[in-house]
């Protein structure tokens, strides 16, 4: 028995070393081996910590619970379970676990910090509910651009703003130029902000464009398919990017490495362009401006981080408030509500942020039927939630999500959906892949992640998916990977008190 414990402890020690080096998946493997030899609350709790780093919050909660069941006095497990439940926005359960820790060690700094963050968010939510107006009402429609003064020190390119009509019939457009785009990028590189008037105008104008797109955007290379919008003959490549999470300099590197948006090159960014990274505003403004400049060559899908609940915890709301004020965040929120949920390319490749559904009866038509307008946040269940949240798994069938939100779906689910909807494959994002991408489910499902060295800790590559068209009018897939590029020394989530677990 002693020898078995010694072997298990040695495996735990190896897991600890991997955890310190940010090799989280390897750490999980060592902890799992240790648990297999001799279950121990420390092994479970340490594996919970590795799962937290991998954002597998559902698995982390399960491990911390197992540790508590083995030793109800093991406080570190309560803390880690609180971290994981907080991360999936279950504030009440998180608060209960933190209270248990603080009842025994009232001065524990990590628990005190987490308790304060939970209380702050709970109070913020209660306050917002108390003053809330009907979410269908438009803050953007109420903006008075004549009353927003341009800062005196702004020396960049002009932005022509035109407002016509009144009330619900009001239309806004901005005249974005390539010169304006390039000067915007340089301003951001220099650590400068946009004038608030421009910031509001870009978000408002982009919102108008998003509202006029369908919940399922459909386009492709021209082959006389009446169900989709045909791209011009000039288009040679469609590039699909996964999560970029406020990593502005890495987003710039995508265009520098693989080509700029334009009549020969279409881009689709597949959600989660904000939160985590400390340049989320800059990334959002860049992508919105590209949409205004190239509306038929640049597309955005919504991710699970383009939602209010995630923005409160993972940094974007606080970054917006710090850089531009609370009202701009409210406008961003409204624009996120107008984003499409998925894109169908060539009637063959379905691109969404998360994944497939808990019901085999769901089809492409259910995505087309999603009602985004008037202004509304995604519900906590159903097609919208699953498009944003679900993940693939190796085994057949469906199972509870390792995240604690949504479900996981197996290769048989992917195969049946592709067969019934005449798809070649599904392209999704939502999860770090160390090589930047992964072909899964017998090639029927592709995960692409475009934030290299995610949060400055993961060490992963970034990747994009390129679709081209051959002489037989068949789609061809190619993968491109890239490393992170240097950025100013500003840590992830620098503008928020949230832990960013």
Structure commentary:
Residues 301-306 form the Serine/threonine specific protein phosphatases domain. Belongs to the PPP phosphatase family. PP-5 (PP-T) subfamily. Its EC number is 3.1.3.16. It is found in: Nucleus. One of its GO terms (cellular component) is cytoplasm. By secondary structure, the protein is of the alpha/beta class. The protein folds into 2 domains: 2-131, Serine Threonine Protein Phosphatase 5, Tetratricopeptide repeat (Alpha Horseshoe), CATH 1.25.40.10; 140-482, Metallo-dependent phosphatases (Purple Acid Phosphatase, chain A, domain 2), CATH 3.60.21. The protein has 17 helices and 17 strands. The strands form 4 sheets. Strands 4-3-8-9-13-15-14 form a 7-stranded mixed sheet. A 5-stranded mixed sheet has the order 7-6-5-16-17, with helices on one face. Strands 10-12-11 form a 3-stranded mixed sheet. Strand 14 and strand 15 form a beta hairpin. Helix 3 packs antiparallel against helix 4. The protein is globular, with a radius of gyration of 23 Å. The mean pLDDT is 94.
